[in-house]
């Protein structure tokens, strides 16, 4: 009998997010390796479990607690932001959002000296520093493993939407990449990234997990860098494909959208879970990364070609009822307004380049946006 993989029960569509932020030198607006000092400085703070180091020292991650209400999560994240602003003054650093730093070189980064990240650096070598990219991770609670596996597969149909809405990485190492989200393509260089294999049952997934673990390929679930992955130890499904937005408000709007979408998917089960979900996955993902809202989405079952922009607006109509039940229509309406006007953070960043003709000044503006947006 195959070894079972326990799933921690959570409330369906409970919500949590993780946000990876850039640590910036306030003089040069380059990335600066100060995560060690920050983590040391907050050790006795009430937020010490909510702010964590990442693989390189110019990154931090903030984590929300578990919420049902996106608005309550928003208030918690604003408190975390206020605390980080205090740290900015104390440590002479600043923070900003965005999926990539516009002009820094990955080779200049320093690995955070924890056992996990040192081991990753030994294994992955340059890929570890190359992973100095910044994402929004959204966790959706599930009451059982069957719902978790269903959502993991069903969410793949909406990955192009999530990329387009959250795109915030048009620049990389000093150039305009031509992409809305360069990060989503750049991160695919990591082993075990991209899309989860097609498992029909949780037992198939468990068998695969233990095979990979027994062969020494992975140590735990964190070693799967899939766009969407089950997190059985948390009782969630984790969406990892989104760039870090420039503002906390946009991150919470995105989380509210995903929560209402998950509520709809679990209630109606409208997506048939078959391998056809993955036939056009790479194409659709590329279209969103490259063109954002103007990308073309090929429906995985009807084969209809529609714009990602129109697909999002159609989906919002489907999930408005669920957002009302979750008291999150304010966040959904705010997000819909951006979609209607084809506005994402990559559009904002490109406008800033036109205005200032300097990537250094763009980063300065990113920091101001992060500090002042509410």
At CATH level 2, the architecture is 2-Layer Sandwich
Structural class: alpha+beta
Q: Main β-sheet, in a few words?
A: 7 strands, antiparallel
Briefly note the CATH topology name. Answer: Creatine Kinase, Chain A, domain 2
Which CATH first-tier class would you pick?
Answer: Alpha Beta
Helix content: 40-55%
Distance N to C terminus: 53 Å
Task: Please state the CA-atom Rg, rounded to the nearest Å.
Answer: 20 Å
How many beta-strand elements? 13
| Shape category | globular
Spans where pLDDT lies below 50 across 5 or more residues: none
Structural domain count: 1
Strand/helix succession: EHEEHEHHEHHEEHEHEEEHHEEHHHH
Could you describe the 3D structure shown?
By secondary structure, the chain is an alpha+beta fold. It has one domain: Creatine Kinase, Chain A, domain 2, CATH 3.30.590.20. 45% of the residues lie in helices and 14% in strands. It contains 14 helices and 13 strands. Strands 1, 2, 3, 4, 5, 10 and 11 form a seven-stranded antiparallel β-sheet that branches. Strands 6-7 form a two-stranded antiparallel sheet. The protein is globular. 45% of the residues are buried. The model has no long low-confidence stretch (mean pLDDT 96).
């Amino acid at each position: 009998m195959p070894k079972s993989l326990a799933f921690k029960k959570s409330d369906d569509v409970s919500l949590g997010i993780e946000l990876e932020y850039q640590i910036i030198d306030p003089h040069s607006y380059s990335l600066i390796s100060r995560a060690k000092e920050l983590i040391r400085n907050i050790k006795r703070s009430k937020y010490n479990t909510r702010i964590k180091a990442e693989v390189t020292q110019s990154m931090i991650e903030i984590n929300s607690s578990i919420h049902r209400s996106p608005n309550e999560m928003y208030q918690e994240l604003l408190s975390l932001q206020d605390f980080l602003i205090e740290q900015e003054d104390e440590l002479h650093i600043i923070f900003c959002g965005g999926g990539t730093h516009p002009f820094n070189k990955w080779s200049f980064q320093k690995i955070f000296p924890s056992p996990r990240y040192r081991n990753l650096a030994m294994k992955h070598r340059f890929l570890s520093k190359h992973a100095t990219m910044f994402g929004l991770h959204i966790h959706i609670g599930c009451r059982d493993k069957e719902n978790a596996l269903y959502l993991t597969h069903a969410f793949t149909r909406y990955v192009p939407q999530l990329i387009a809405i959250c795109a915030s990485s048009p620049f990389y190492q000093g150039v305009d990449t031509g992409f809305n989200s360069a990060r989503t393509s750049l991160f695919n260089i990591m082993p075990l990234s991209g899309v989860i294999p097609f498992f029909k049952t949780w037992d198939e997934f468990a068998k695969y997990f233990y095979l990979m673990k027994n062969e020494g390929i992975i140590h735990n679930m964190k070693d799967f860098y899939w766009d969407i992955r089950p997190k059985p130890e948390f009782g969630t499904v984790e969406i990892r494909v989104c760039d870090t937005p420039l503002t906390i408000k946009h991150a919470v709007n995105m989380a509210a959208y995903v929560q209402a979408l998950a509520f709809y998917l679990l209630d109606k089960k409208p997506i048939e879970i078959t391998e056809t979900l993955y036939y056009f996955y790479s194409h659709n993902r590329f279209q969103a990364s490259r063109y954002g809202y103007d990308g073309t989405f090929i429906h995985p079952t009807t084969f209809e070609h529609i714009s990602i922009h129109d697909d999002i607006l159609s989906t919002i109509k489907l999930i408005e009822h669920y957002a009302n039940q979750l008291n999150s229509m304010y966040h959904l309406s705010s997000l819909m307004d951006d979609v209607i006007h084809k506005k994402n953070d990559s559009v904002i960043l490109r406008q800033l380049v036109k205005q200032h003709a300097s990537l250094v000044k763009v980063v300065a503006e990113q920091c101001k946006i992060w500090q002042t947006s509410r």
